[in-house]
Amino acid sequence: MSIATRTGDSGTTGLMYNRRVSKCHPRVEACGSFDELNAAIGLARATAKHDFIRQTLLPVQQELVSLMGELATLAEDLPRYVKDGYKLVTPQMTGKLDQLVQQLEAQPISFRGWATPGANPSSAALDVARTVCRRAERRACALQETNQLQNAEIIVYLNRLSDTLWLLARWVETQSERGGRPPAELA
After folding, report:
1. Distance separating alpha carbons of residues 38 and 56, to the nearest angstrom
2. How many Å apart are CA 3 and CA 31, to the nearest integer?
3. Distance between CA 31 and CA 80 in Å, rounded?
4. Cα(130)–Cα(163) distance, integer angstroms
5. Widest pairwise Cα distance in the chain
6. pLDDT by residue (tens digit) across 61-108?
7. Alpha helices by DSSP H, the chain
8. Long-range contacts of range 18-22, CB-CB < 8 Å, 24 or more positions apart?
């Protein structure tokens, strides 16, 4: 099977369960933002010099796959989606990010220069991922405002993820200032 299916040549794209919508549909716009977020996090992971960052970001990317699947499913198809064994975004997923935020906030992190990203390639990549995450969050909020988003936990998860990415960027900058030695708790 070719990747060039030609099914989108008329300006439509497929959602879960063979639902076709316009490529400029708000749900497709949101899915595109999540795809960009996953790619941005992948770039941050690929450019990371610390194992802690790489090992932290990979599970996030895996969770984003679940999130994208849920988002690509129309509300009327969600019961089928769950019945078929797909996962929804849960408070437990957000809870993992909350724990990470607490771990990071317990570290001696410098906030100097935070408003001007680019102290090093790794922290800059994390800041790009954070800004893409904020855009994805806005797209999810737009869906919620039009009753097209059934699971409000998606917005909570994204809000926490952007906080996490911000802290990770500051952590990386602090490690650079300290000569690259992570605290023992995070090594």
Report:
1. 13
2. 19
3. 19
4. 8
5. 55
6. 999 999 999 999 998 999 999 999 999 999 999 999 999 999 999 988
7. 26-47, 51-71, 78-83, 91-105, 121-145, 153-177
8. 19/74, 19/77
